[in-house]
Automatic annotation (TrEMBL):
PANTHER family: BLL4672 PROTEIN-RELATED, BLL5781 PROTEIN. GO terms for molecular function: DNA binding. Residues 8-62 form the HTH cro/C1-type domain. This is Helix-turn-helix transcriptional regulator. PROSITE patterns: HTH_CROC1 (PS50943). Pfam families: HTH_31, MLTR_LBD. InterPro entries: Cro/C1-type_HTH, Lambda_DNA-bd_dom_sf, MLTR_LBD.
């Protein structure tokens, strides 16, 4: 019971809310919230979910708070290979196929590769097979000299982009794995924060196998209003040509 209060307080502080602000948003008394945080009052499951909703606590961590308060998890979690996820897998396959000839991939909450289309796998030509042993972490793949790091032309700019994104994701989720991954990016080499700030969109400039340069801009897509843990943690990273030369090169590869 006390552990649930500690978790709620940690999330409140992470979101930079005072007790008064959170109590006002959740429409509870400051005294009751204080009692919950100190373990003097056991919150109902509805109260836990209400507080977590206002604190934007991820679904996985909401379940952890519920368990700490002595309640059953509210959000189901399934493996991608389980029957309830069949329609999700079909949707992901449809999205990836429709994006061809442009690269697209699906990653989980820790940036491990879930699926990719042929165009994305085509960018991995020449990568050390040892780096491609599953599970493949996409962030590590992009900063590893045996992976894509040696072919990323704007490496300092791209690393700064990755570091900023990982910092935001760590702040949002409190996942220590993401914090450690952020530190790995910092240790991988110089960061060009000014280059990221000056650009309208941070491109990924990649040297192709034939010596040409492929330039991409990326978008991230997540499922709207997910209530299942695995689904809430998936992201589709789609890459689009940033210039005509890249568009033509990808079209030519698709025709071949």
């Amino acid at each position: 019971m006390g552990d649930a209060g500690v978790l709620i307080r940690e999330w409140r502080q992470r979101r930079h809310f005072s007790q008064l602000e959170l109590a006002s948003r959740a429409e509870v008394s400051t005294r009751h919230l204080s009692w919950i945080e100190t373990g003097r009052s056991r919150p109902t499951s509805a109260m836990v979910l209400r507080l977590c909703d206002h604190l934007e606590v991820p679904l996985r961590e909401q379940n952890a708070v519920l368990l700490a308060a002595g309640h059953a998890p509210a959000h189901p979690e399934h493996g991608l290979g389980e029957a309830p996820m069949a329609e999700l897998n079909t949707a992901l396959e449809t999205i990836l196929a429709a994006h061809h000839p442009y690269p697209a991939l699906v990653v989980d909450r820790r940036w491990e590769l879930v699926a990719a289309n042929d165009a994305a796998y085509g960018l991995l030509e020449g990568v050390d097979p040892a780096v491609l042993e599953p599970p493949i972490n996409v962030i590590r793949l992009s900063i590893d000299p045996r992976g894509l790091a040696g072919r990323i032309i704007n490496g300092a700019q791209w690393r700064a982009h990755l570091a900023a994104r990982l910092r935001r994701e760590y702040d949002a989720t409190a996942d220590p794995f993401l914090g450690a991954l952020h530190d790995e990016v910092l240790a991988a080499g110089e960061l060009d924060h000014l280059g990221v700030t000056a650009a309208l969109v941070t491109p990924l400039e990649l040297r192709a196998a034939d010596g040409g340069v492929l330039s991409f801009v990326s978008t991230t897509t997540v499922f709207g209003t997910p209530r299942e843990v695995t689904l809430s943690e998936l992201a589709i990273e789609a890459f689009y040509p940033a210039d005509a030369a890249t568009r033509q090169a990808l079209a030519a590869t698709a025709r071949a």
